[in-house]
């Protein structure tokens, strides 16, 4: 009876791991199904929130790079004109400026 309860507790804590093998379930063994991944991330959020949020923000960056531009275009956003890199020269002849000569 007690062994069955312990096995059920072990199965609940190590969901997704092969329980027939005599290897203990610990943090180094990767989860294999979605329920175990969710349970692991939930545990990580409670036990070490700094690592959890760092990973979450770290994965959000590349996802945003791939998803935000198409979403902006679907809402009608148009990119602004590029900033000029040089000053345009006038298409008229240059006039010599007078009145700013050095005094002698």
TrEMBL record:
Where are the residues of the annotated region Disordered? 81-104
Q: Which domain of life is it from?
A: Eukaryota
InterPro entries from the xrefs?
Nuo9.5
Q: Which CDD domains would you find in this protein's record? A: NI9M
- Stretches that traverse the bilayer: 50-68
Compositional bias of type Pro residues: which residue ranges? 81-91
Keyword set for this entry? Membrane, Transmembrane, Transmembrane helix
User: Under which name does UniProt file this protein?
Assistant: NADH dehydrogenase
